[in-house]
Fold this protein.
Amino acid sequence: MKKLSSPSEIKEILTRHGFRFSKSMGQNFLIDSSVCPKMAAASGAEKLPVLEIGPGIGVLTAELAKVSPKVLAVELDDRLLPVLSETLAEFDNVKIINGDILKLNLSELAEREFSGAFIVCANLPYYITSPVVMGLVESALPIKSITVMVQKEAAVRLCASPGERECGAVSVSVHYHSEPEILFQVSRNSFMPAPNIDSAVIRLNMRAAPPFEVKNEGFLFKLARAAFSQRRKTAANSISSMTQIPKAEIEAALKRLGMAENIRAEKITLEGFCGLANELYKGAFFNVKRDAALPFTS
């Protein structure tokens, strides 16, 4: 097997295939030989098939293939396909698909490639972290866990409990659908080329059922996005300014739930958001203004 953590061997392989790194695709290949075995071991791949996103040159893919019955890797950059054919040649349980994970029909893909439950394990490009993670946790697919390497700050935000200073709209959705944890940190020097920031590996253990009942999940997440859209304002002000809900009505709901009328979004717990969503939900009248300006990275 090729030593895929060796910078010299990586350069030799890539040069031979005429490959050059693409900044727009967030391509940074791991050269720390200790990281991928730890990720594979923590992911639960020894029991279930794996969906990997962005295999790069196959460093993590190879470790997953050693323990998983099947690894399905989705790679956007078709220039890496011949590289992967070489680096993963010894594994007959790996399948590479050339495609954009944000555009693929994951339900059809999972039904075709997996017979049931599966896990996700990936070193995610930073620029697609939020849409990929949110798409997976909200997909209702039979995913048991999601183990991914992301930007350190994103890891903190994703895993922060609602009610903590570091939380955001993504935190509400992540905790509603899963039990997240930060496993370990990864230095920027573990990559080639080295990014400007450190990373962290997190695992989201998917819940069998949400911890709190809500009348409408879509409404809950829109409410959270509105609440965090203007973090310097109170939750009531933020929600009211981004929706058709009168501020007085929001403040009254907060009071009924035992929360201060001037509470800020980062102080509201998951239970609090679920309760507030149930208090305010009245059907389809809810509308987030300028919805495109409210990404799930808030």
Q: What stands out?
A: The radius of gyration is 21 Å. The chain has two domains: 7-206, 217-292. The first strand starts at residue 29 and ends at 30. Residues 7-206 form a domain with the Rossmann fold fold (CATH 3.40.50.150).
